[in-house]
Design a protein that fits this description.
This protein is α/β, with parallel strands linked by helices and 229 residues long. Helix content is 42%, strand content 17%. The site of pyridoxal-5'-phosphate (PLP) has 13 residues, from strand 8 and helix 9.
Length: 229
Amino acid sequence: MIAEKLHEVEAKIAAAKARRAKDLTDDVTLVAVTKNHDVAAMREAIDAGATQVGENRVQEAQGKHETLDRTVTWHLIGHLQTNKAKQAVKLFDLIHSVDSEHLARAIDKEAAKLNKVQDILVQVNVAKEAQKSGVMEEDLRPLMGLCDALPNVRVLGLMFIAPDYEDRERCRPLFRHMHEIFLAAKDISWKTSNIIYLSMGMSHDYEMAIEEGANIVRVGTAIFGPRQY
Ligand SMILES: *Cc1c(COP(=O)(O)O)cnc(C)c1O
């Protein structure tokens, strides 16, 4: 069942890639979002070809990391509290949700202790939603500049969580605008940052996100079914 749904999503990703404008040529990485699904479900997805998993809570990921007898790339997609930075740096290959100087510095400090350079994305609140995490667009450049100067952090791109609009087409201009911001960030000559990833699109809008330039999509429900809370 999970295998089937995973392959369905992969096929839809391929079709969305084919619909893109000619200048959008990036490969698209699928992160299977396994939050609130157990290790058995994770194994099923991995055995069916998933190579990337996304979790939104450090503690949950930690337990799964200990149990999961498979090699996979770990993405932290949820909001990260500074006091969890130490565990996050131990567990995750890519942290998508950096949105403050305070958090960036905490990650840098913990990564230094482990002799690791932590790959991160900066989360942008391009929809300017009051309750959402993510840095405001006008604060993005200074935050990226700060991260670029931190020795144990490497910025690989940007992340965006679209608003919950009923009419998903209202998200399209936001995805498009994120892609413009991504291209502008790519153009800057950073010291250590290497802006290659634009992470946006979830179960109900990943095809649209790909059409507008996403090259990482984070899909849970469409692969694993509804989450049990
Ligand atoms: C849960 C979550 C997803 C996946 O959501 P689905 O709608 O289940 O595909 C993607 N990104 C983030 C940040 C999430 O928290």
